[in-house]
Each structure stands twice: as C-alpha cells, then as structure tokens.
Amino acid sequence: MKLTTKGRFAVTAMIDLGLHHGSGPVTLAEISGRQKISLSYLEQLFGKLRRNHLVESVRGPGGGYHLARDMGEMTVADIILAVDEPIDATQCGGKENCREGEKCLTHDLWAALNDRIFEYLRSVTLRQLVESQKAKEAARETGAAQIHDMRATVNKRATPVSA
C-alpha cells in the first residue's frame, strides 16, 4: 500500500490545525506557510474535510478553519478516508478480479494487510498525534534552553578576570 501525498498532507494539516486549536480560526495560508504545502492543494483537501464534517469554516475577516469534532474522536483513518485516499494494498481494489477476472494467489494476503493497516489507522487519534507533537516541541525547547545555559556557564568560566 502506498499512501499518497493527499493522505499525508491531509494528516499533516489536521495536526497543524489541532496544534492551534482554541486560538481562533486558522487560515490555510498559515498552514501552508508552516507546513510548506501548496495553498491550492490545501483548499482542495479542506473542501473534502469540510464536506466530511472534520473541519468547519469561518467566513469573513479573521476567518479560517477550526476542528468540527473533538480531536479524541477523529482518527487518522477518518482523515485519510475523508480526502478519498484508498487504504488498499490489493491490485484489484478489493474486487477479487486481480488476474484476468479471477482472484490472484496473493489477494487474501493483501486484503489481510489492508485490514491491519486500517485497524491501526483507526486506533490513532488526532489528539494523540497533537499531544505527541507538543511533547516533542517541549523537549526541543527544553534542550535548547539547556544548551543556552551550558554556553552561558562555559562563557563565564572562559571570561578572564581583570585585576
């Protein structure tokens, strides 16, 4: 199974939206700038996300998008399926007509893989992804602060004392 750019970008944009949840509507231009995703591509994705009730749009000055549901109720599978991303490793799209109209020898293997992938993607919520990202950002900030403190300590020790 290959997850296309559409699915990857949709999940990335939703994590970004989740990270800024509670601070008012977020514009697609802001997401585009932070995540380096084409604005026109985001417009297409968010149209699908809105139609599938994962995001809501706010029109007018100060408008943008916000989450339509609680992050704990949205799964990665919901996001990927909302943008029409197929979760299918079979050659036939699950129709069992892989080889000249007949089911191929490996169809059941790939169908079982689809089930496992889908099961996993349904088990991961947007909340989990957002909290994980916040923890990584906090760790980076803590690490940067520690490096800054170490440099300051080293610089104090290296400064010659004048008599």
Task: Describe the overall structure.
The chain is mainly α and 163 residues long. It has 2 domains: 5-86, Arc Repressor Mutant, subunit A, CATH 1.10.10.10; 88-124, no CATH class. It has helices spanning 5-19, 28-35, 39-51, 76-82, 107-123, 126-158, and strands at residues 55-58, 64-67. The protein has a two-stranded antiparallel ribbon with strand order 1-2. The mean pLDDT is 89.
Which terms would index this structure?
5% strand, mainly alpha, 57% helix, 2 domains, Arc Repressor Mutant, subunit A, 163 residues, 2 strands, 6 helices, two-stranded antiparallel ribbon
Q: TL;DR?
A:
The protein contains six helices and two strands, in the order H-H-H-E-E-H-H-H. The protein is mainly α. The mean pLDDT is 89.
Oligomeric form: single chain
CATH class category of the largest domain: Mainly Alpha
| Biggest sheet statistics | 2 strands, antiparallel
Instruction: Give, in order, the helices and strands.
Output: HHHEEHHH
Helix content: 55-70%
Radius of gyration: 23 Å
CATH superfamily of the largest domain: Winged helix-like DNA-binding domain superfamily/Winged helix DNA-binding domain
Ends apart, CA distance between termini: 72 Å
Task: Set out the fold topology.
Layout: H1 5-19, H2 28-35, H3 39-51, E1 55-58, E2 64-67, H4 76-82, H5 107-123, H6 126-158
Antiparallel strand pairs: 1-2
Helix pairs in contact: 1-2, 1-3, 1-4, 1-6
